[in-house]
Amino acid sequence: MTPDELRILLERVRQGSTPVDAAFVALERLPFSELGYAKVDHHRGLRLGFPEVVLGEGKRSEQIVGIVRRLLESGENVLVTRVSELQAAEVLKELPDLRYGSLARTLSFEHVPVVPAAGPPVAVVTAGTSDIPVAEEALETLRLCAIPAQRVFDVGVAGLHRLLGRLDVLGAAPAVIVIAGMEGALPSVVGGLVGVPVIAVPTSVGYGTAFSGLTALLGMLTSCASGVTVVNIDNGFGAAVAVVRMLRRGGAQ
């Protein structure tokens, strides 16, 4: 239930068009639903402005189906992250109306199409093509939160002229998500060029001493560009939610 839907329900009760008992039925599942293996949080949309997002990784397909089905019954939009192709195939057998994004590894469903908010798009930047799956996870999260976004892909420090050619896009964005593996230098460069929030995402892309993203993570945490925010390795979802919180609190969206 969204804040607007709750206000409408309460107004109908006040006007007498909705009986108290009917309102009680609508609200009795509002805090959470108990499934035994999961407590589905129906109150999150009221607290945070977007419904609970399901992490598919580590869950059995039937558990994903059970959680998603309860979200759908409650009229909430659905986003499931870190969903393998095998999981997706099994879930779609039970819930064929979901949409699977194979590159982002997400399942989603919208009861009502999400209309992007007005304003310039967030820039989602990758150092290389191998970082794109993490970027697509961030983009899908932004889309379902009604935050417009623009792709700026494959502009890493090995060819810095590629980034400089897109400074107009970065400069116009209300926030920039920068996704990089290897040594993770790109967020420092971007952080020194733009004055808006920069969210850095290290990825597990890289050889040997990249240590599955740890080198990029440590490099981003020790960035010489002031104020760069760093999320966990491969966490495109977390970067997108950080941007959503910043823009909604700041009134930019």
Task: Describe the protein.
The chain is of the alpha/beta class. It has two domains: 27-109, no CATH class; 122-250, Rossmann fold, CATH 3.40.50. It is 40% helix and 16% strand. The protein contains eleven helices and eleven strands. The chain has helices at residues 3-15, 20-27, 44-48, 61-73, 85-94, 132-144, 160-164, 167-172, 186-191, 214-221, 236-250; strands spanning 32-34, 39-41, 54-55, 78-81, 99-101, 106-109, 122-126, 149-152, 176-180, 198-202, 229-230. The strands form three sheets. A five-stranded parallel β-sheet has the order 8-7-9-10-11. The chain has a four-stranded mixed β-sheet with strand order 3-4-6-5, sandwiched between helices. α9 (186-191) links the parallel β9 (176-180) and β10 (198-202). It is globular.
Task: Explain briefly what this protein structure is.
The protein is an alpha/beta fold and 253 residues long.
Bin the strand percentage: 15-25%
The domain tally reads 2
Q: Count the E strands.
A: 11
Overall residue-averaged pLDDT value: 86
Distance between the termini: 21 Å
Outline: globular
The total of helices stands at 11
Largest beta-sheet characterization: 5 strands, parallel
Could you tell me the radius of gyration in angstroms? 20 Å
Helix/strand-derived category reads alpha/beta
Segments where pLDDT lies below 50 for 5+ residues?
none
**Approximate helicity band:** 40-55%
CATH class of the largest domain: Alpha Beta
Second CATH tier, the architecture of the largest domain: 3-Layer(aba) Sandwich
The H/E string reads HHEEHEHEHEEEHEHHEHEHEH
CATH topology of the largest domain: Rossmann fold
Q: How are the strands ordered across the major sheet? A: 8-7-9-10-11
